[in-house]
Amino acid sequence: MVSVTVLSVFWKIMQNQSFITEFVLLGISQNPDVQKIVFVIFLLVYIATICGNLLIVAAIISSPTLLGSPMYFFLVFLSLLDAGLNSGIAPKMLIDCLSEKKTISFGGCMMQIFSAHFFAGAEVIVLISMAYDRYVAICKPLHYTSIMNSRLCGILIAVAWAGGFLHSIIQILFTFQLPFCGTNIIDHFMCDLFQVLKIACTDTYSFAIMVVANSGFFCILIFSMLLVSPAVILFSLRNHSAEGKRKSLFTCGSHFTVVVLFFAPCIFEYAWLPVAFSFDKIVEMFCTILTPLLNPLIYAFRNKEVKNAMSKL
Predict the structure, then answer these.
(1) What is the predicted pLDDT for the residue at 157?
(2) How many CB atoms lie within 10 A of CB 302?
């Protein structure tokens, strides 16, 4: 019922807002030879990303011991979100690398923006949940099983999906109402929200402020909170044995690396009003294409339990 209502609102807005039915993406490069090289490289990256993340999901699900652990339970959803984030961007980019005219429909553009912010927004909450899980495991080991029970884990994942949807739907509802009556050329390889705002036939300054508040401010706030977490954990380890410190630091180090790789490009992209950076495409590419590939390498393939589950699978 809710989905039908949302779709009807979208349809009414689309009937009144725009003369443009499609956008033209300039892509990464206009050079055909460069486009072929980019296609080969990112096709391999996309295949590796999807296979790596789905392999992690299959390995953990097939192992009742791992799936019963909150850390690996969250890792399953992190891998699914990475695969979804990558799949919302990479296939269209690969097709455009082999196309002379890189076009995307208005609805397809809005859906690409929605999927990117939905998966990224949900991943933020999953990363917070994983940080909290490590804090409880290290700082309150005797109460770990009672605090990180299956009910709390399920609630945190539900909050992640709902938070990602709320984050993305707010921006999409505003974007749908913008008039597009002039140029339809987007200087990007994807429908980036700020790039779409630049070609709207109205003043989008106030909306850009809202995007910065909705994305950039919360990225900085959450990133700062996640930076405090390792410091608290390190302080609590001061009286632990050297072996206990090593294991805890190894786990926290992996999570901290993933957090930095995820939040650094997001903060650069959305923490201030859009400025014409010459390398904004590189930042977006790193955030949406490369980070989902690096996460399984950092978080899972260095983990002995996950590697053993993969070998059994």
Answers:
(1) 94
(2) 14
